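Q: Hi! First time asking for a complex rather than a single chain. Here are the components, and I think there are two in total. Is that enough to go on?
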Amino acid sequence: MSSTAQTAPRASKAPRSPMAPPRSFLWSRRIFLTLLTGFVLVPVYVMVSSSLKPLADVSGKFRWLPSGLTIRPYIDIWSTVPLARYFVNSLIVAGAATVCSVVIAVFAAYAVSRYSFRGKRVFTVTVLSTQMFPGILFLLPLFLLYVNIGNATGIALFGSRGGLILTYLTFSLPFSIWMLIGYFDSVPRDLDEAALVDGCGPLGALLRVVVPAAIPGIVAVAVYAFMTAWGEVLFASVMTNDTTRTLAVGLQGYSTLNNVYWNQIMAASLVVSVPVVAGFLLLQRYLVAGLTAGAVK
Amino acid sequence: MTTTTAASADSGERAVPKDSPGAARGPRRPGRIRRIALPYLLLLPALILELLVHLVPMVIGIFMSFKELTQFYIRDWGTAPWSGFDNYKVSVDFSAPVGKALLHSFLVTVGFTLLSVGLCWLIGTAAAIYMQDTFRGRGLLRALFLVPYALPVYAAVITWVFMFQHDNGLVNHVLHDQLHLTDKPSFWLIGDNSFYALLTVSVWKGWPFAFLIVMAGLQNIPGELYEAAALDGAGLWQQLRRITLPSLRPVNQVLVLVLFLWTFNDFNTPFVLFGRTAPEAADLISVHIYQASFVTWNFGTGSAMSVLLLLFLLVVTGVYLLLTSRGRKTADV
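A: Yes, that's all I need. Here is the structure of the assembled complex.
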């Protein structure tokens, strides 16, 4: 980016042009954004409205408006498949993966951001390049590895929540480290040097100075990690059994029955989406701020 | 806080804090060793986990691709006989059924990825630029646009499966019953239409990510640039071409690459949309390899295909980075 322009004080968040934009621009914006809103909202509408319809409405021809509203699907979803168990499993797996991933990423990003050491470049390149691996490449070897570790040490990784937590936290780790490096770089070094001089150890400086200053970035990373773990299907479908099954696989249980209860499927989809969508929308400001400060710089 | 002045305000290379806080700590040897080891200790958890879950399995995967690993050896896969390059030969023998199917799946994936990434980028960038100025309802719209990205993949894709149903889906109801565009209701999840169904879902799910990243990138463009351009008489279109798009270049370089890799490797969307066996027209490579490994229990060939896929992605990424970085340098100078 052109560095000359950035030496000017960067206070201005002024509208980008003093003149009012021409009418043609306003009209094209209106049309584009309206169409896009329709595209985005139609599936959301289908999900919400179908979840409140009686079974007859979703089995016959599609209808935009329900013939009658019912909350039965929301009651039935818990008994058709053991949804509550899947829900708890998903919460445990995604929650633990998020916490571990964030803590590990904070330490790693702090090392890369604040120290110069041998192998730094190799580390960042290697970690980032794991993002490129097709999941299918290490699905089977990982499966065999977990089984062998289980046989050798007695630590059950295959089929357990622990194995899934371990797998998921490494999925979000590369992106989290990468984003936090950018974010920590934007926290002035003077701050943690002052803390060092005042007698904090390096870890004290990290926890008392850098982490509080980087909270938006850390929140953004946590949101990302949680969403990654909550939505993953491939590894969940191979690495879980009946007791550890997560929502990603469990939800498919509704459609394997003789009669496809679309109203229940939509109700269940809505129920499992609410925690992540609500969390995401509440915290999306941090995500944008975190991306602005970190990843896209 | 008074001590901050001791650290020079702008000494450029200050990545090594152990030199700056003063000489008093110099002679304490255990402290020095600790300080040298510290960055490695901080990295250790991340490193071990990445090794365990990504790098070691990758090496095992490469190892397996040279073995004749069929269902007879799956219980004790170490005893499977070596097969040299046989698995690779089978995979790339395009005159035999296995190789032919793989080539077809590869071509479908390339076409699908190019279209999906292009559309996601275009829609995301257009939306972000249209929403650069403040207007009433912008915050609400922004939150709304991020919903497809925030929804768990399976919940979103299952909804699309319902919409694409032949008898009771919304798509056929609108296209056939309401708009009369088709003679009879179409099948969307089998046959040739499945490609467009997959593309629609993929774009619906993917464009908000491009929107999010471009939006973040736009916030780093200083407002003075636009003010100066407007004073010089540049119209909106010129501001877009001369300021917005060039400033977004570094963001786009990463964004397009990430979108490409995610779309090319996407497993979740086709798997939930079509189930274990995808229709031929939408047979993406990840599902194809999954199918080749788990349905026929031929893990050796499946591993060889995965390794070929990885090699392809490495080459494409390398060439892409080389081309875009060089283009960027010459453009800046």
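A: Residues 14 and 235 of chain B are 43 Å apart (CA to CA). Let me know if you'd like any chain examined more closely.
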